[in-house]
Amino acid sequence: MPIMTERRDFCIECRKETEYLLRKKDIVKTIRDKDYIFGITVAVCTECGEEMSIPGLIDKNVLEIDEQYRAAEGLVSKDDIERLMKIYKIGKAPLSLALVFGEVTIPRYLEGQVPSKEYADVIKAALASPAYMKQKLVENREKLTDTAYKKAIAATDSIEKLFSVSDKMLSVIAYVFEKLEEVTPLMLQKLLYFIQGIYSALNGKPIFEEDCRAWIHGPVYPEVYDLFRDFKYNPIDDARFALLERMEDTLTEEEKRVIDLVLNTFGMYGGKMLEKITHNEIPWQEARKGYGDSIPSSEIVPKDRIMKYYIAVNQKYEIGTETGLRSYIRDMLGNAS
Description:
Layout: E1 8-11, E2 16-31, E3 34-45, E4 51-52, H1 57-72, H2 78-87, H3 92-98, H4 105-110, H5 117-128, H6 130-139, H7 146-162, H8 167-180, H9 185-203, E5 212-215, E6 218-220, H10 222-229, H11 253-263, H12 271-279, H13 282-287, E7 300-301, H14 303-317, H15 322-336
Antiparallel strand pairs: 1-2, 2-3, 3-4, 5-6, 5-7
């Protein structure tokens, strides 16, 4: 998971060194007489809320815009191809053969040649779907050496097992990563729980099918825990994170609206503060009855119990608004202190 560390720099508004958070911001940029909306990273002062200029951020924004421009125009980058090779543990020539390209095609792309639209679509499909890549490997088995084939097939099997959660859950996670930039494993678990509760209260049904369990440190989705435990580095820096990219596009506007509500309120707190809130809520407390503070539990926190609780919270706080959610959070943290 992206690790949230203390970040400080000089804020020209506060006229002193302050902490800052990295957030996403949409900008409009015109390229060749065409307007594009790009999501770039900005640093926001935690004291005054204004944007800060920090070292390296401009270079990061240039890379973000280039990557999103390529995506908007259906182009494939050198990084995309290198990630594909890392994900499936396959070399340049074997990848060319597996995708039914000429043997030197992928090496040429890595040297800077731009793929055709047809070949770019094949590469993007392989990058987005382990099942598609596995199909290509099986169909072109005779073109690959035994070693290359077995290594790549083993990688696809591992990826398929890794991504065992529902597409909706993955879409929500992808959206959270896209919006917040920095999320710890503990924070992600709590945000998913709040998203589930608030969405179900406002819409009368859960947003995703997974059940959370009442672990010691609050509600946890074990499948998600297992998924990101396997990431040795920040997911955005892990080649396999490419499999989540653009999944957030499948969310409905209402789903995005509710997730934004949660991220703009609960998302301003770290994992331990969010844990305190869940410890003060009825669904987790009821599921933990009979368990001590240090005793593990696999008790399910039923989705209907979560929905019922947040329906009651909505009647008191109007949690369909950021103002209502902030009031709820203040009260819960006050009770938890």
